[in-house]
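note to self: dont lose this again. the chain is below, predicted strucutre after it. 769 aa total, dont forget to put it in the shared folder this time
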Amino acid sequence: METVQERSRDVSTRLESHLRRHPALSDRIYRQLLIALHTRGIATVDAIHDEARTRAGRESRPNLDDPNRAERDRLDELDRVWLHELIREHVCRHFTVEDLDDLVNLTVKREEVHLIEDLATQREVSFRALSQQLQTFAALPEGETKLEQAEVLGTRVSLTRHFISDDLDYIGVAKKFLRVRDFAELTKRMVSTDKAVGKIGGKAGGMLLAYHILQQTESRAKPFLPVALPESYFIRSDLIEEFMRINRLGEWQNQKYKPIDQVANEYPLIKGVFRNGDFPVEIMQSLRRILAEVNTHPLIVRSSSLLEDRFGTAFSGKYASVFVANQGDLESRLHALLGAIAEVYASTLAPDPIQYRREHNLIDYQEDMAVIIQKVVGVQYRHYLLPLFAGVAFSRNEYRWTPRIRREDGLMRLVMGLGTRAVDRVGSDYPRMVALGAPTLRPESSALDIIRYSQRTVDVINLEANRFEAVRLADLLDPSQPFPMLDRIVSVRREEGLYPPTSVLVEGDPSSLYITFDKLLSGGVFAPHVKDMLHRLEEAYGQPVDMEFASDGEMFYVLQCRPLSQAEQSQAVSIPSDVPEADVLFSADRYVRSGWVSGIEYIVYVDPVAYDRVETRERRVAIGRVVGRLNHVLPRRKFILIGPGRWGSNDIRLGVPVRYADIHHSRMLIEVARQKGGYVPEVSFGTHFFQDLVEARIDYLPLYPDAEGIRFNEGFFQQARNLLPHLLPEDADLQQEVRVIDVRAASRGRTLTVAMDGNSDRALAFLGA
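---
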């Protein structure tokens, strides 16, 4: 057993070693040891100072009576010599070697943190210098004694501002959860020139912050899967400027000031020019190294602009994200990766983000674009790669189809395969809508309805064809090759019913399987796990959030997190009961959200029956363009849009092909499902399209005119004078499909009101003063 003398000798030897290793920090090391002696109650600072003066031969008499004189004299050089000697004696007597190492490590960490902060506040600091300093800090032992949070907050803020965002709302949250060591890890994954000063952007910042919040806050739910981040690399935002400089693309910088029609017309040309642009040699070398590391695992190249996913400006789906199957030799893979990055860069000049920036008074902001290169989450099954499930979840639920569902419990849109089908309006598919507080409740009542409103097609990466594909479930599955977790993803159809698989091994013809997630959601673990994560994120952010995710069955990967754009909370709405039948234009009783829309002077009515008869893609595209032109001609917020199917769908056959820039001046969008037309509006809550409606304060309502008990005054829409030839003479040939109705002229000076009561799930549109 070590004696007191031996321990004291060991401590003294170790102290000498530390002082030789850190000569510039000797005074700071002694200061930290003195503070430790004081805080541990071994000897006060004043007592040690007084004893040092005494040993130096000076009288130590503190002034405690005269407030106009200093309480004590400053220590001179001899006093300091004795001060250090006294500190050494006390330390050797009372501390262990481990205590000493911890305190010296704390001193060194403090010095490194201050140096990092000094570097991070210098805009022109080289990436290499700051990165190396961060790696030096990260190499230090964490130690038992931590720096106080107040000491490191300034450094965290400086690093966040330097590498991620200067948005004060984001910084206010990030400084509590992003540690200095986290930035050391981040710089290892940055694609940057030494002189680059750009950031990694909002989408990357939100993803990183969400992960660290979830790692540092306590879960109140049963364990499900460990939370992780996909393997990611970050191209800093100012490299787009270098790309445009070396390719002489500066002429396009002023696209944002052009008329939006011109922006839309020129965008395909811009994409082609960007796609074939050259990249700096240094960046290409870095990308080659990344491709060597990830080998042939599929990638997704994602936008992460400076404005994206900020508090108040989500830019949902405005910029490009491009899947890269990443098969073949290195140079072929590099060629595809460069094309994807260039396409993301080009999307900064697309009409939708430019119009969005105009609407949010951000058009003059220098919107640089960072890029995330990310390994696609998933498992390989046959020659496909795909997640087992993916989706988007919201901490607030605006889609409540029964009083048993609470708004604060949240909502999830869940799909099999890549999460594109959860956030986009694609094809004739439907994601599983999950009320997180009651995950087994469905809006559909019968097995036939569940089948009708189920996901049929799965988005995957085809490794053989080297591309992104949509594959029907029956074609994806091979009965001879079990698919992971399939029993928790699908239900089996037998006669007129749907049943969960009875065992882990799912038997039967793949054509009898339907994606329901019934087993996954009925287990009592998955939905509460997601709900718990959302509540922890909302608590940290101080406002509702949405989160995109994917899973390979082993980990739950956070792909994105941002503050949730919310519709204004309407007061309770009472549906008038005394409206004359002749003044009612339509009623609704499905998926109604509370709201009161009044003073509507114009209706843009795309006739569902006439639209269904259109045979060519070109004419349907022309109809969408006419809607966009009317969006700029009609009085802002004084008109509503009524028309068939899924507006903004990727499948032009299923609804009017419009973008954000085509509808953002309207007051309301009503999607119509006529039985004879075959259109069924997907309830759009949670899609990027719906987020556009929310941020533009456009109310939304699905309408089923042929359903029992629903009133629909078709005569009003067909017989009122059509203003389209007058407003847009060049588009008069589309007047059979597109009708523009002057409500006042058609109703003796009255306007249209739409009253919507979400509590009773009823809506009424009527003419009134």
